[in-house]
Amino acid sequence: MIRNYIKIAFRSLKKQPFFTMINMFGLAIGMAGSLLIALYIYDELSYDKMFADADRIYRIDTDIKFGGSERRSSEAAPPMAAALEQDFAKVESTVRFRDQGSILMRNSEESTNSKERGATFVDSTFFKVFGIELLSGDKETALKEANTLVLTKMVAEKHFGKDNAIGKSVVLNNEDTYIVTGVIDDLPKNSFLRDHSVFMAMAGNVASREDIWGSLNFFTFVKLRPDTDLDNFQVQLDGMFEKYMVPWAQKVFPGITKASFEASGNYVRYYTMPLTDIHLYSDRNTEMSSNSSIQNVYILSFIGLFLIFLACVNFMNLSTAHSLKRAKEVGIRKTLGSNKKELIAQFLTESGLISFFSMLIALIITLIALPFFNDLSGKSIALPVANPIFWLVIISVTALLGLLSGSYPAFFMSRFKPVDTLKGGSQNNVGGGAVRSTLVVFQFAVSMILIVGTLVVFEQLKFIQNKDLGFEKEQVLLINDTYAAGDQLRAFKDEVLKLSAVQNATLSNFLPTPSGRSDSSFFQEGDSEQQNAIQMQEWGVDTDYLRTLGITLIAGRDFNKQSVADSSAVIINESVLAYLNLDAQEVLGTRITEANGPNDIVPYTIIGVVKNFHYESMHQNIGAVGLFLNKSSGSMAIKLKSDDYSGVVSSIESLWKGQAPGQPFNYRFMDDAFNSTYDAEQRLGRIFIIFTILSIFIACLGLFGLASFNAQKRTKEIGVRKVLGASVSQITFGLTTDFLKLVGIATAIALPLGWYVMNKWLQDFSYRIEISWQILIFSAVLVIIIAILTVSYQSIKAAIANPVKSLRTE
Amino acid sequence: MIKITDLEKYYATEEVRTIALNKLSFSVKTGEFVAVMGPSGCGKSTLLNILGLLDDPDGGSFMFNDIEVSGFNERKRAELRKHNIGFVFQSFNLIDELTVFENVELPLIYTGVKSAERKERVDAVLEKMQIMHRRKHFPQQLSGGQQQRVAVARAVVNNPKLILADEPTGNLDSSNGNEVMGLLTELNEAGTTIIMVTHSEHDAKYSHRIIRMLDGQKVTENILADFKSSERPLTTEGGTLTPAEVK
Q: What are phi and psi of A317, to 5 degrees?
C-alpha cells in the first residue's frame, strides 16, 4: 500500500514541476535558515559546559561605587580567594587569574620573538578546579614554583616543534625566563579560556600576595561543594566587606567605617556568577573574553521559529491552493470507492516526500552556507554529522514538518464532495480565509520590522563612522608593543620622523582606541574628602601626542619639550571640568594630587584643556581623562602624509628590524582598530540582512501561494466580470489591491513596532541617530513594491485567462 | 445585425482535433429573436461564445453590424462587447460576494457611467424586473428564478443591442422559466435582438426562428413568426460608430 502511495505521490509531484519546486524550495529555505540558527544557538548555549563540575564553579564579581565613579567588575581583590577558602567550609577550591594580555615569547635558545595572545598568571589549583588534564607534565607540581609555566599544545609546538617542551625554557618580553612544566590541549573555542594559551605560575606574581582589598584585578573562581545553598553563600559574601575591606580601608582613610562609607552613597558588593552563565549573561567592565548576550539568543530563536513556521504555513497555503486543481481527482477517487482515510494517507505521503527532499536540499544549503555564516557570526560551527542525535532530530523534524504541513491540505481535500467536484464548481466556500489573511499580515509585518531594523543598524553604523570623534583617525598607523625595542625606541622614533611620508609620531601607553583601562583617584589640592575624588584615567603621553592625533586644545597650552616643569603638568579633557566646577579658562593653574600611599602624595598642575574626544565606543559617555608627560613606550602612533600605505609600512618595518632585531612588528591602521570596536554591531547588521532577505523571500512565497489560491477561487467571478466588460487592467488592479490591503494592515502594525524596538536598541548608544521617517517610509514602500511584484503575476495570469473556460459549466 | 459566413472553430488537444463549428453560415436581423437548438456537443455554446466576442473563430467571417470582427484583438472585442452585448447564463453567474444591486451595477462601472446615473439606471431596471425589494440581498439568499431575473437585469442595464442567452431556463422550474422567457420576450418587443441557445422546445417557441444544429453545421431553420427588420446603428461610448472607425 505504502509503495503504491509513494509511486502515485512521485507521479503527481512530477506532473506539476513548478509547483513542486516552489513548495520544496520554500520549505528548504526555511529549514536551512532554522537549522543554521539552531546550530548557532546550540553553540551559544554550550559555553563552558565542557569543564568537569562546571555547574558548581562560580566567578566572584564586584560592584563598586567610590568617588563618583561606578564600576561593575568581574574581578576581585587579590586576597579574596584565600579569605573565602579559609572562612567558608562550602568552598571546595579556588583559582585566580591575573590577565597579562599579549606577551612576546621566544625559545631561550633562539632570538626571534613571537607574540602570544592571552597570557595569564594562574594559581596552581587551575587543573583541580576546572578538571583540565595535562598532555605532559605533572599537574600536582606544574604551576607550584615561580617562573614556571604551562602552554597549550599549539604554542608549545610553535616554539619547540615536536620535541617534548617539558623542562625547556622560554623568555617572556625579553626579560623573564620561565621553565615549561606542562602542556595542555588547546582550549575549546566555546570556553571562556579560548583566547588563552600561556599560563604562568601565580607564585611569580608579587601583587597576588598583597593584602590590598581596594584593587580589583584578579579573576577569582570558586568551586563550591555539591550541596551548597547559594543564597546562604551570598549572605556570607555580603559579610566580606565589613570583615576585610573596611579594616583595610582604614589604613588609607583613617576613621572610615562601613556606615560612613555607605552614608556618602558608596558601596562595595560581591556576587557569584555561574561559570556556565558567563558567556550569555555577564556584561561587566572587564571580561576574560568577549561575551554574547542571551538577548541575541532570544532574538535568533524567534527568527528561527518564525522561519520554519512560515515555511510550513506557506507550504499549507500553496498545497491547499493547488488542491483545487486536484478536486476532480479526489471526486473520481471517491466515486471509485476510495475512503477518506486512504485519501488522507495519499496526501500525507506526498507532503512527507516533499518534506524529505526539502530537508535534503536544506542540508546541502546549510553545508554551502556554513562557511559564510561562520564568517558572519565569528564562530566555527560544523554540522555534527557524526552525532546520531543530530540525525535523530533531523529525521523527526522532517517527519513532523511533513505531517504538520500536509495535514491541512489532506483533510481539506479529502472533504471534497464528489458530486460537486465532478461538476467542477462549488469549491468556493473554502474556509480559513481569515486565518490565511492573518498569516500574510503577520509575515509582512515581521519582514517590515526586520527591514526597519536593518536600516537602523546601518544608519547608526554610518553615523558612528562619520561622527567627529575629536581626533583624526585617518592615515594614522599604530605600532603595538613598541616597548620591545627597549632603549632603541627613541632612536627608532627619530628615524621614523625623518621619513618623508611621515608627518608626526607619538609614543604613549594609551590611544583613543578601545583597550583595557582603569581610573585613578585624584583630589583637588588640599582636599581629601573621598566623595570629592576625581576618578580620572591616567594616560602617559609624549609631547607630540596632541599634534599627531589632531586633538584640539581649547584652553591653555600643549606640553613643551624644553620645560622640565611639565613632568608634573597635566592636560585634562572637558569631562574633568565637571568634577572641579570650573570652566576651561578658570581651571588652568589648578593643582590636583594623586595619593599613591598614605605618605606619597604627588601634585600636578593643569596646563591645558582639550576638547572631549571619543576613546571608547559610542555606547559609553566620554569619561574624564588626564594626559601626563612620561617616558611611556607601549605603542606608537604615526601620522602619515601620503596614501601609499604599503610603501610607508614597509620602510617603517625595515627601520624597526634595524633597531629591534628579532622583535615582532605589529601594526594596524587606526581606522581599522576603530571599526573593530563595532564588530558586534556590524555582525548584527549582516545577520539582520541575511534573515531579512530570507523572511521576505518566504513571505513572498506565502503571498504567491495565497494569490494563486485566490485567483483560482475567484476564477468564475473574474470570468463574469470580464464578460461584463472589465478590462485586464481593471481585474489585475482589483485582485492586487485586495492583497495590498493586507500589506497595508501589516504596515500599520509593523512601523510603530519596528520604530519602538529599534529605539530600544539605540538606547544602548550614548551617541545615536534619531529614526527618521524616511527609513520607515522606505521600508514600507519596499515591502509594498515586493508584494505587488509577487501578486501581479498571479493576478495578470487570472485576468488574461479566457472567461469562456472559467464559465463553462457543461 | 449579424452575418456569419463559413465560420469554423476547432479544439485541438495533443492528439485529437475536434471540429466544433464546420463552415456555419446564417444571419440575424436587428430586433430578431432566434433560438439555436441541437444535441449536446453540436457546437451551440461555441457559437454563442464567438457571437458574444468571448472567443475567436478559426476561419470564416463574422460581420457585426457590417463590421468584420473576426480578427479583432482582445481589447477591441471587449470594447465592442461591453457596449453592445448582454449575457444571460444557465447558472446565472452572479458574483456571490456582491449584492443584487452591486451585481447589476457592474456593467455600468465598466462602461464608466457616473455613480448617480448608475444608481438611477440600476434602480429602474430592478423595478422593471420586479426585484427591487431584494436589492440589498446576496445571490445565495434568492431563489433560482429571482437570481435569473437579477442576471437578466444585469444583462440589460447597459441597454445592449444584443442579448445572448445560454439555456436561461435550464436551472429553473417551469413557472420561473416562463417568467424569465416572458421577460426576454418583453425585451425583444422593445427592440433588443436576442439569440438564445436552448434544449427546450417550449422555450424555443417564444422565438421568431429556430436554427437547428448538428456536428457544427446548420441542419434546418423553422420560421415561427413574421419579423420586420428595423436596423439600428451600433454604438460605443461616444455614440454612433461607423465601420471605418472600428478598424
A: -60, -45
The verdict on a CB contact (< 8 Å) between B96 and A717 is: yes
The helix (run of H) or strand (run of E) holding residue A447 is: helix A433-466
* Domain boundary, last residue among A676, A711, A736: A676
Claim to verify: residue A367 and residue A500 sit in the same structural domain: no
Look up residue A14 and give its three cell numbers.
512530477
Burial class (CB in 10 A: 0-12, 13-18, 19+), A806: buried
CB-based contacts of A695, cutoff 8 Å, min separation 6: A303, A306, A307, A310, A443, A446, A447, A450
Cell numbers given for B226: 413574421
The confidence band for A458, taking pLDDT boundaries of 50, 70 and 90, is confident
In a mutational test of the A interface, the residue from B21, B82, B198 whose CB has the highest number of chain A CBs within 10 Å is B82
Q: What is the pLDDT of residues A142-201, one digit of tens each?
A: 999 999 999 999 999 999 988 788 999 999 888 889 999 999 999 998 899 988 999 999
Which uninterrupted H or E stretch holds B105?
A: helix B100-110
- Hey, what's the torsion of the CAs at A594, A595, A600, A601, to 10 degrees? 40
* Domain of A436, in residue numbers: 2-42+293-462+679-807
Establish if A282 belongs to a structural domain: no
Residues A383 and A492 in one domain: no
Q: Looking up cell 481527482, which residue turns up?
A: A329
Cβ distance A717 to B87 less than 8 Å, yes or no, reads: no
| Residue numbers in chain B where pLDDT is lower than 50 | 230-247
Q: Which pLDDT score is estimated for B193?
A: 93
Domain count, chain A: 3
The CATH number linked to B52 is 3.40.50.300
Q: A728 to chain B nearest CA, in Å?
A: 9
**Closest-CA distance of chain A to residue B109, Å:** 9
Query: What is the rounded CA–CA span in Å between residue A730 and residue A737?
Result: 11
